[in-house]
Amino acid sequence: MAAFFGMPGNEDLADALAAQTGSEAGAVEIRRFPDAESYVRILAAANEKAFLVCTLARPDEQFVPLVFAARALRTSGANDVTLVAPYLAYLRQDRRFREGEAVTSRTFAELVSLDFDALVTVDPHLHRYASLDEIYTIPAIVVHSAPLVGGWVRDNVKAPLVLGPDEESAQWVEEVARQVGCPWAVFAKERRGDRDVRLTAPALGRYRERTPVLIDDIISSGATMIEAAKLVRAAGMQPPHCIAVHGLFSTGTVERLGAVAKSLVTTDSIPNPRADLKLAPLIAQQLPTGFA
Ligand code: R5P
Fold first, then answer.
1. Separation of 188 CA from ligand 1 center, angstroms?
2. For residue 127, which atom of ligand 1 is closest to its CA?
3. 283 and 122 Cβ atoms separated by less than 8 Å
4. pLDDT digit of tens for each residue in the chain (292 aa)?
5. Are residues 264 and 155 both part of a single domain?
6. For the domain that residue 150 is a member of, what is the CATH number?
């Protein structure tokens, strides 16, 4: 029998995955000592196969306790520990742009691969890597959120036009458009700084009667999505629905986007007030068969 253990803030997803797969739900106790070091304890006899659930937004503060928990699971009896990280951090720095920069995607992948036997994640931000196998030495299962996003668009939007705010988003946008059966297009993006992007809109004239739906994998500062929403309006279209797989949402982003979007929705890969698209059934479906 397998068991799912949720790191703090991930208990709901761990419990949902346990329920969906008929597995056990375990718990991890984590607290901070007065000097800010972590106390970690597995609160159940570990099964031979353990899934440790921890989405990796804010990875720097989460990673050390995560490794302690993975090792505690092994010393409690698990001989196979899989990380379920719906949002996988440190994929955006995928090359050295300037002399001396750390290629954090590669180093982070090496660190995760040391303590886990496998990885399950959702729509990782792959830009210059063709697959996670280029940097992870453990098997990675990639769950695609397109059926969930496509279902939301079908249920909520009449005559949609699906738009991606940059060239990389074509991989998600095209699949959602195929599922919905609607046209799609992407913007061109030039990033000038962490919160400064310049976008160029595709030709939108012939789609003016359609309802724009902007889809990206990540919303962080919101700069990309807000700029795209403004260009959609400037092209004479109605305010767009904005959808992201991973709502990282830095402070004030939900409010700023609310001012330009018709609606804002994300998956629950990272808990946030707009996380209406629930991933547990999709993730459960794609776990290796017979794992329990
Ligand atoms: C990067 O290219 C991603 O696909 C997103 O477009 C980006 O991470 C969004 O970041 P922000 O919300 O800060 O513009």
1. 13
2. 2
3. yes
4. 899 999 999 999 999 999 999 999 999 999 999 999 999 999 976 678 999 999 999 999 999 999 999 999 999 999 999 999 999 999 999 999 999 999 999 999 999 999 999 999 999 999 999 999 999 999 999 999 999 999 999 999 999 999 999 999 999 999 999 999 999 999 999 999 989 999 999 999 999 999 999 999 999 999 999 999 999 999 999 999 999 999 999 999 999 999 999 999 999 999 999 999 999 999 999 887 555 4
5. yes
6. 3.40.50.2020
User: Any residues with Cβ below 6 Å from ligand 1, and which?
Assistant: 165-166, 168-169, 197, 216-225
- State the DSSP H helix or E strand holding residue 34, giving kind and residue range, or none if neither: none
* Distances from the Cα of 187 to the Cα of 163, 167, 171, 215, angstroms: 8, 6, 13, 11
Instruction: Provide the strand spans (E) within 144-210.
Output: 160-164, 184-186, 188-193, 196-200
Ligand 1: centre distance to CA 10 (Å): 24
Q: Is the pTM of this model over 0.85?
A: yes
Does 95 lie in the same domain as 178? no
How many angstroms is it from 135 CA to the middle of ligand 1? Answer: 21
